[in-house]
Design a protein that fits this description.
It comes from Trichoderma harzianum CBS 226.95. This is SSCRP protein. It is a single chain. With 111 residues, the chain is mainly β. It has one domain: Gamma-B Crystallin, domain 1. Helix content is 14%, strand content 43%. It has a five-stranded antiparallel beta sheet with strand order 2-1-4-7-6, with no helix packed on it. A hairpin with a 2-residue loop joins strand 6 and strand 7.
């Protein structure tokens, strides 16, 4: 019983422990095709904001390696007013997001 509990606790901590990833935002709607608005390292649940609106964003890290991750984008700087119509592209170590209904000012990786 003790071994089972220890195993479950270590498995849970491994799942919950996430490596930080790199977040880049761009003025162009093609990820890396325009001027970089901002670059920062983020953890899951961080609200990443910018004073300037961005037209696309890219999350880069092992968790984003050809895997769709839950990310939301917002029209305000506080991750409150969610944007709908976000398109995503998966790649080797990244997810690129573009916004069909306007530009974003903040983002949150929801995992």
């Amino acid at each position: 019983m003790q071994k089972t509990i220890l195993y479950l606790l270590s498995a849970c901590s491994a799942v919950l422990a996430q490596n930080p990833v790199l977040f880049d935002s761009y003025t162009d709607a093609r990820c890396a095709g325009g001027i970089v608005v901002g670059t920062t390292v983020v953890q899951p649940g961080d609200c990443t904001s910018s004073t300037a609106a961005f037209a696309s964003a890219q999350y880069r890290g092992s968790q984003f390696d050809n895997v769709q991750q839950p990310v939301s984008f917002y029209s305000d700087e506080n991750c409150v007013n969610e944007i709908t119509g976000v398109a995503s592209e998966l790649g080797d170590g990244y997810n690129c997001f573009t916004f069909n209904n306007g530009q974003a000012k903040s983002a949150k990786w929801l995992t």
